[in-house]
Structures are given as C-alpha cells and as structure tokens.
Design goal:
3 helices; 8 strands
Length: 182
C-alpha cells in the first residue's frame, strides 16, 4: 500500500510540475502589432468604346516577412489576431471618382479568399475606408498571413469616369502573440 501511495504521489507531483512549467513558459510570451500593407497604383480604362464608365483591376503582393518583428518571431508565433482592415485613397485623378462597385481581395493559392465589397463610394484624396468583418474575412486573412508567405491583394471594379487613376494604400493591422521559448 505504501508503494501505491508513493507512486501516486510521484505522478501527482510530476503532473503539477509539468503544468507549472507551461505556466512559466507562457510568462515569456511577447505581443506586438504587425501591419501588412501595399500600395496599388490603379489605372482606370474605358469599359468599351465610347463608354462613359471605366474599369480597373490591379494586383500587388504583400510579404508578411517584410515586417521585421513578424520575421523575427515567424517560427515562434502562437496566435495572430486581425484587428482592422482599411484602405486609404491617394491622388485620385480626376479629383473625385465615384466607384459604383468594387471588390478588394486578399488571396493565396489553396487558401480561402478574404473579400470585401465596396459600392457607391466617392474617392477623394486621403479618404480612409474601414473594411468590415461581416463575412469572417478576418479569419480568412488570419489563415493567409499565418502561412508566412507572400500573398496577393487585388482591387477591381467600375468607376463613373472612363479614364483616370488613383492610388490605394491597403493596410491589414494585426496583434501577434509569440513565445521565444517555443
């Protein structure tokens, strides 16, 4: 019976020690903000001959490892939380462009695409548009960023002018938790 109690005591202390080691390890967790961004130079072309409407379609790449903190902890990341997605309009030419419909997508091969619809939006210099999370786009974006590989951002749509251009600064804000001891 003494042997049985000794074995149970050893098992209890082993489990208690291992769980407290995990708690101690979590004290080394590091949290930081990591923004992933790109600027798209978007030309507007006529949708057809003699059309008053214009279409646009532009793709650029975002490399998550271009963020120094993210790169530093890339193999130690425990969690990525997307906190905000936004676009900022820069240098529209003409100075005011109305987008009747557009789609912004973050995509990577073999991954779900995070897409946002924009409609009836007047684009002016410096205008910031906060993108929602109504269709769990942040979860899809999180999965894409968690691959730690370059991914594409595409903006396509229709505008009220048949020629022109504008720039779009796309920014995805995240909060990352990593543990250097992992």
């Amino acid at each position: 019976m003494k042997k049985y109690i000794t074995i149970l005591s050893i098992m209890f202390f082993t489990v208690a020690f291992l769980s407290s080691c995990e708690k101690l390890k979590s004290l080394a967790d590091v949290e930081f903000d990591a923004d992933f961004e790109s600027e798209l130079n978007v030309p507007i072309q006529p949708t057809s001959l003699k059309s008053t409407l214009g279409a646009f379609n532009k793709t650029e790449t975002i490399d998550p490892l271009s963020n120094a903190e993210f790169q530093k902890y890339q193999n130690k990341i425990k969690n990525i939380n997307v906190t905000q997605a936004e676009i900022t309009i820069l240098e529209p030419n003409p100075s005011s462009i109305v987008v009747s419909s557009a789609t912004l997508s973050a995509m990577m091969t073999n991954m779900p695409t995070a897409s946002w619809s924009i409609s009836n939006e007047t684009l002016t210099d410096g205008k910031k548009i906060i993108l929602d999370n109504n269709q769990q786009q942040f979860d899809k974006l999180k999965a894409i960023i968690n691959e730690k590989k370059p991914f594409d951002v595409n903006l396509q749509g229709v505008a009220n002018v048949n020629q022109g251009s504008f720039k779009v600064k796309v920014k995805f804000k995240t909060r990352v938790k990593a543990n250097p001891l992992n």
